[in-house]
């Protein structure tokens, strides 16, 4: 009887967890639809891309890139205000979200950038794009603009990763510290939110558990990504990073959370001084590392005005 009860209890727990996962995916799909996005897939080489697409292809194209351990859904709140006016593309970057890669995939920023270019070409997106990147996605956006200058109309950089002189957080001084914020066991998600956001939005417990479980399953890839970033930090200096940044001709908008604990706000002014065409950085008080989730309207309204100035 005890064995039967234990099996029944395990089946019940399993069904509840499965139902929570289904509900989580349903809510993500609803959020994408609310933002005017559809979920799509495309195989390019050895990468099975999953991405969100919305807005008319007859309108200018925006490519939005998420950060380390993030997903395309980090941009949904911002995308809601963009899809009525632009053709919006938001991929899950390789080894993130639902995009699948081989086990031995090269996760370096240069390779991610090159594979992103192949993805855009295979999907036949307008090659003359506006690109926005958050955190690690910002580093990819900058390299993309430096390598493919005639294909980038503008850049939006939100708390963008890079190699900076004014770095003073543990995660910039020693990228190895990023391992301490990888979600790999229950409880880590709450700890990450306290570091990444100054004022985390309310998340129902059921969805929080499902999100944490998803990130735990991806923790191996996240650790691989951190290892790649650690190696790159040894190869690049603030001077070599600045040299690449100065090559970018596209207009740039910089947004930063004043209370960012991951990439300190002083970096925004340093970046501003490197670009040929950069607006004065927009600094958001009371906001941490995730302005696109913490204060999306404070990001998107100035961004729309910025885009309207691009010819």
TrEMBL record:
Key words of the record: Hydrolase, Signal
Residues covered by the AB hydrolase-1 domain: 60-294
Keyword match Signal: yes
Keyword Cytoplasm: no
InterPro entries assigned: AB_hydrolase_1, AB_hydrolase_fold, AB_hydrolase_sf
Signal peptide: 1-19
One Pfam family of this chain: Abhydrolase_1
Protein name: Alpha/beta fold hydrolase
Organism from which the protein derives: Acinetobacter chengduensis
